[in-house]
Amino acid sequence: MQTGLCENNPTIGVIRPATNGARERVLSDAELAAIWKACDDGTEYSKVVRLLILTGCRRAEIGDMRWSEIDLDRATFTIPTGRRTNARTRCR
Questions:
Q1: Which residue from 5, 18, 43, 64 puts its CA 20 to 30 A from 37's CA?
Q2: Is residue 62 a contact partner of residue 55, using CB atoms and an 8 Å limit?
Q3: Exposed, middle or buried, 88 (CB in 10 Å: 0-12/13-18/19+)?
Q4: Contacts by 27-34 with C-beta closer than 8 Å and gap 24+?
């Protein structure tokens, strides 16, 4: 409205969606094994899914990974504070 692109706010009167609480469910070992086996085609997508399973990281944490965050000698992946949702550095 301030830039003149619309005359009225189209979101007035829209019901705010309920917030999603913390997730309680986790995948069982059998479910993880099934996903792992389904990702045996060697595609980049399958490799990313397996990396997510192995690290327990969030999709964006793996997607935004940089070589500078990986220490091959120590076999660690350090997520810098600026990319963590809880503002703490974490290693995997």
A1: 64
A2: yes
A3: exposed
A4: none
Mean pLDDT for the chain overall: 86
What are the backbone angles phi and psi of residue 13, rounded to the nearest 5°?
A: 90, -5
User: Does position 91 have pLDDT exceeding 90, yes or no?
Assistant: no
Alpha carbon of 12 to those of 9, 77, 80: distances in Å?
Answer: 6, 45, 39
Neighbours of 57 (CB within 10 A): 17
What's the one-letter identity of residue 73? D
The residue ranges of every structural domain in the chain are 27-56, 67-92
Beta-sheet strands, E only, within the chain: 70-71, 76-79, 90-91
Q: Which residues on adjacent β-strands are paired with residue 91?
A: 78
Say if pTM beats, i.e. exceeds, 0.70: no
Q: Which residues contact 71 (CB under 8 A, 6 or more apart)?
A: 77, 78
Contact 82, 60 (CB under 8 A): no
